[in-house]
């Protein structure tokens, strides 16, 4: 990966949010560079928990868009995610922001 790529501040913030989820620490190519349509496509073949993490990020990015991977369901995510994923979500939920 070319680390010299530059991102606008909103894209950088989305990448940093994504990196709080273990899914994306293990799969940085899914989120860096920040390309929401590529993440959407990646999520369609991801595991259930990974897909939920991607759905969450895409919901933060554009909650009104009908993503191919589906809409984020917080109750489903909280029942599937492990503790580190739930903690990442709860950290965002304690001070939510949108681009």
Helix/strand/pairing category: mainly alpha
- Summed up, the domain count is 1
Measured by DSSP, the beta-strand proportion falls in under 5%
Order of helices and strands: HHHHHH
**Major sheet description:** none
Gross morphology is: globular
What is the radius of gyration? Answer: 13 Å
Q: What is the overall pLDDT average?
A: 94
Total strands: the figure is: 0
The number of distinct helices, counting runs of at least 4 residues, comes to 6
Question: Could you characterize the architecture of this molecule?
Answer:
The protein has one domain (9-94). 57% of the residues lie in helices and 0% in strands. The protein has helices at residues 9-18, 22-26, 36-43, 48-61, 74-80, 83-94. By secondary structure, it is mainly alpha-helical. Helix 3 (36-43) runs antiparallel to helix 4 (48-61) and helix 4 packs antiparallel against helix 5. The longest helix has 14 residues, at 48-61. The mean pLDDT is 94. The two termini are 25 Å apart. It is built from 6 helices and no strands. The chain is globular and about 35 Å long.
């Amino acid at each position: 990966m070319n680390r010299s790529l530059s991102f606008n501040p909103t894209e950088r913030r989305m990448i940093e949010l994504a990196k709080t989820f273990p899914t994306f620490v293990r799969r940085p190519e899914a989120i860096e560079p920040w390309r929401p349509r590529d993440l959407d496509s990646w999520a369609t073949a991801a595991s259930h928990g990974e897909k939920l993490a991607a759905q969450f990020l895409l919901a933060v990015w554009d909650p009104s868009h009908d993503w191919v991977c589906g809409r984020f369901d917080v109750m489903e995510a909280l029942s599937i995610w492990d503790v580190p994923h739930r903690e990442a979500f709860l950290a965002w939920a304690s001070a939510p922001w949108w681009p």
